């Protein structure tokens, strides 16, 4: 009965999405992407055994003189699913570990959200990147018949009952990794039997913390491993590959630098109020979560300090004459820099002395591990950080602090700013936390090796 109601709801949601798409751009991307999925998979299927090398580059099709048995054993098909871009980054170390350990494997990557697909549709470590077809029985059967996965890997969450049930019936191993569970979820309620049954379709779950492990065992789910969060492995990778940015270095110079990462307007109300009243030497870089030139201009009017925009500086630098028209004086006299480009934030954290991570006031806290790996005190808003284990851990350890408003931020920031020993202590806590808790990818890959049976 619940399965019927659930499936009916999916059909209704599809119809509503098509109507909403008429006037909502993001929904329109989702509807259009759903329509393209079958073409993308079909085109891939016509490539007749195309394979990739260890670094992800395409190779010619496997020739006929090779044994079909050898081909099957050396080329499993992995299906990875990520809800959105954040989950993709969390799962990326495992995807790339599969590519390295199984060089000729086929890797299918699906997304639910446009923010994931539109950013990673050209990801070169996957053979196919597409939207996940809606979770209806006909879509599920068609998708699995076409893809023929040897294993399905879900990142953090996304429990699609029809997909998981079909995987179980077809004896296709499915695992969930970097998962985190909370007592208020339906799985652990007396009336949550439908969702508990969905959970039991998974062959193995790798969780981030002991509480999640305890909750699963409380409902007699035994195939669980305490592995940690693969996102830590990803930020370690990023830190080792971090790029240098001369303009950022020039802007910072020898002045303490606060970076505000993935900031929403609620976060910036606090930051601007603080900045307008802070009288000590300080440079601030703001990386908005959503880049809107008109909004950045309005923000510039809200601050009393001189501000600059990164893309304009970069264009000016590119147009320099041989004698140099770029003014270091403009950088020296400015206290605020708006980072209006994509793809730089995770690398420029290396220059920070302090970081404020956005999302804590309204949307849900963004990635605290990207700055933590470089070692600096971290601040964020409240109350929307409770779902993030790393944030809870850093608060408990003392590497991070949460603030309710501008007055509170001014107080706690000044304390850390003025006490170099305290600043270093908090920085060491954050850096050590990442290093000590990295390694979840190896645990996931051990389960993959154990569960993966070529079909």
UniProtKB/TrEMBL annotation:
Matches recorded under SUPFAM superfamilies: UDP-Glycosyltransferase/glycogen phosphorylase
Transmembrane segments: none
Reactions accelerated catalytically: lipid IVA (E. coli) + CMP-3-deoxy-beta-D-manno-octulosonate = alpha-Kdo-(2->6)-lipid IVA (E. coli) + CMP + H(+)
Pathway(s) it belongs to: Bacterial outer membrane biogenesis; LPS core biosynthesis
Subcellular location: Cell membrane
Keywords linked to the UniProt accession: Cell membrane, Lipopolysaccharide biosynthesis, Membrane, Transferase
Top-level EC class: transferase
Pfam families associated with the record: Glycos_transf_N (PF04413)
Transferase among keywords: yes
Domain 3-deoxy-D-manno-octulosonic-acid transferase N-terminal: 72-233
Record-level Gene Ontology MF annotations: transferase activity
InterPro entries (alphabetical): Glycos_transf_N (IPR007507), Glycos_transf_N_sf (IPR038107), Kdotransferase (IPR039901)
Assigned EC number: 2.4.99.12
PANTHER family given in the database record: 3-DEOXY-D-MANNO-OCTULOSONIC ACID TRANSFERASE, MITOCHONDRIAL-RELATED, 3-DEOXY-MANNO-OCTULOSONATE CYTIDYLYLTRANSFERASE
Job of this protein: Involved in lipopolysaccharide (LPS) biosynthesis. Catalyzes the transfer of 3-deoxy-D-manno-octulosonate (Kdo) residue(s) from CMP-Kdo to lipid IV(A), the tetraacyldisaccharide-1,4'-bisphosphate precursor of lipid A.
Family stated for the protein in its record: Belongs to the glycosyltransferase group 1 family.
Protein's name in the database: 3-deoxy-D-manno-octulosonic acid transferase
UniProt lineage: Bacteria, Pseudomonadati, Bacteroidota, Cytophagia, Cytophagales
